[in-house]
Amino acid sequence: MLRNRIPDRAAAFGKPIYGVNLRESRYDLKPGQAALMQNCVLDGGVRKRPGTTRLNQVSLGAHPGRGGHRYYRNGGAERLIAYHNRISKLSDAGGETALTFEQTPDQDTYFRTWSITDSVYITNNIDPIRFYDGVVFTTLVGTNVPTGRMVTPYLDRLFCIQGDCVVYTDPRDATVWSPVDSAWSAIRPTIGAGGPTALHAHTATGDMNDPSAQLLIFQSGGVSSYMGSVLGDNVLDATAPPDFDAQLIPVEAAVGNESPHAICSVPGLGTFWFTTQKTVGFLPYGSKNAEVVSDQLFSYQGDVPGFNHCDTALLRDVSMAYHDRKLKVFFPVAGVTYQYWLDLVSKSRFPNRGWVWYGPMVGQSVRRVWTEDEAGDSGSLYGLEHVAANGLYAYNLAVQGVTTDTVGASTRSFTYTWHPYYKDFGAPTYLKHIPVIRVPGSGNMNAASLTIMDETTRQSTGGLVLKDADGNAFTTGVKYDTGVKYDTGVKYSLGYTSQQGYCYVISQTGDEPEFRRISVVVSNSSGPFVVEDIIPDANVVSRSR
Q: How many CB atoms lie within 10 A of CB 418?
């Protein structure tokens, strides 16, 4: 070993196993934390997130998307979207078939499938409940049918928010509803101010008939749980039946919800939601107490929005989805949307690491997301364009092998940036020479750049590029073999090779800079990209500052 050279193991930054932390000062982060993981996740290495593709090639108009849903029924599945005054079907080829033009324009729209009737129910808080069975699209008629904000199946009933209460149906019958003035079959939560804002079935089995299931009733100021198995056979009766056992239990105050689109169940864990306090709440299965799991995403960084920057007036536009073993949260800030992803693989395999978040994911503004993961679907995540000026498009989000985003009619590259913690190399009071920084990884190394951030001077040296071991530029897309076509034209041996990138600091800066405590920011502007580690060749200078 060279004299005064810090061993590689001590010099390496290591992987960001604790994810991004926006609450702490960048200079106070610990090993394993990151100041920024823009458009990247830890999955083997620090990997660029998948890109997106466009479903419809022609805009559906300058309208924001209001709702989206995959309706699974016996014998088929259909993709439904809501915008302006329409409810439409959208095919895999992007073709639109309108089901109605009679919705009140530009209202938040909610879809729920009820397996008992094999139909999907559609609400927007203004128009009568509509339903669609794959053949007929019509208005729901019956007794006390509400004009509600949203419906949710629970046990063998449908529940619906109607004004300041929640009403529900007779067993297995969507046409008979409890009256809003009922003393027993109209539910009035009182944990927070205002009426109900959202409903969600909280069940570990996914079965609405699970006796341990709960119906979560959200208000702006809290959450209540409605539980019971005997809810009455006739909701029109003046009094409850003798064996009526339903009860309303307060779950948590101060963690309410404004967006039904921002509530999500995760198998084996519980229910997550975006709160009115701009945090992510979590209620584990089997627990009566909720917790906040997003404290590290309260951002004090002026250039990186956190959840606390979410537009207060647009809390109803926050969306959430469970996809690819991640909880993905989409929230609006100043006319566009940002995303943060919660790594649930890390939570399952390494629970002591706590809640690990990545992001922000930027480059595309998305709203009204939904998953398609039943009846032969491949577990895709879809969403609608958030910015009306871009035109209304439906996007397939997080498509493996795609490294660009579709934004309206355009296709754009997006930038990967990993900013790790500041490192003193075990010798905090000594200066170090760093002539070379090694970056093992794969993908488009020629599109990568490094920036050295010095804590002492608060200055940075950017625009540094990676070269190969001989000091030559990388070629675009170095791959295994030659990419021989196989059968139908799909190429094999096209995985990007593992490579060692070298940043020759002295030759690129014309100087021999000295540092005490540094962070090395790695960026990539196009193509696939993975970083395994950042390893400076650091040499201690025998004088301190």
A: 29
Helix (H), strand (E) at residue 11:
helix 8-11
Contacting residues for 490 by C-beta, under 8 A, at least 6 apart:
none
On whether the CB atoms of residues 197 and 179 are closer than 8 A, the answer is: no
pLDDT in tens, 470-500: 889 987 654 444 444 444 444 443 455 678 9
Spell out the SS3 assignment of 122-182. EECCCCCCEEECCCCEEECCCECCCCCCCEEEECCEEEEEECCEEEEECCCCCCEECCCCC
What is the 3-class SS of 319-350, one letter each residue? Answer: EEEEECCEEEEEEEECCEEEEEEEEHHHHHHC
Torsion sign across C-alpha atoms 226, 162, 281, 366: positive
Q: Which residues lie closer than 8 Å to 86 by C-beta, 6 or more apart?
A: 98, 99, 100, 101, 103
User: What is the model's pTM?
Assistant: 0.93
Asked if residue 94 lies in contact with residue 79, where contact means CB atoms within 8 angstroms, the answer is no
Contacts with 139 (C-beta within 8 Å, 6 or more apart), sequence order = 128, 129, 130
Bridge-based pairing of strands 529-531 and 130-132 is unpaired
User: CA-CA distance, 327 to 345, in Å (whole number)?
Assistant: 10
d(Cα 65, Cα 317) in Å, to the nearest integer? 10
**Model confidence pLDDT, tens digit, residues 306-364:** 999 999 999 999 999 999 999 999 999 999 999 999 999 999 999 999 999 999 999 99
Count Cβ neighbours within 10 Å for each residue of 250-276 and write b for 16 or more, e otherwise. Answer: ebbebbbbbbbbbbbbbeebbbbbbbb
- Secondary structure letter of residue 305 according to DSSP: -
CA atoms lying within 13 Å on the CB side of residue 521: 20
* Peptide bond before residue 360 is cis, with ω within 30 degrees of 0: yes
The separation between the first and the last C-alpha atoms of the chain, rounded to the nearest angstrom, is 25
For residues 74 and 30, what is the distance between their CA atoms, to the nearest angstrom? 52
Query: Residue written as tokens 């800079």?
Result: 513
Q: What is the pLDDT of residues 88-109, one digit of tens each?
A: 999 999 999 999 999 999 999 9
Select from 407, 260, 279, 267 the least CA-distant residue to 323.
Answer: 267
Amino acid letter, residue 156: D
Token readout for 193 is 């101010």
User: CB neighbours of 70 closer than 8 A, spacing ≥ 6?
Assistant: 77, 78, 79, 80, 370, 371, 372, 374, 377, 382
Rounded distance, CA 126 to CA 431, Å? 67
Q: CA-to-CA distance for 124 and 146, rounded, in angstroms?
A: 11
Handedness of CA 472, 475, 479, 485 (dihedral sign): negative
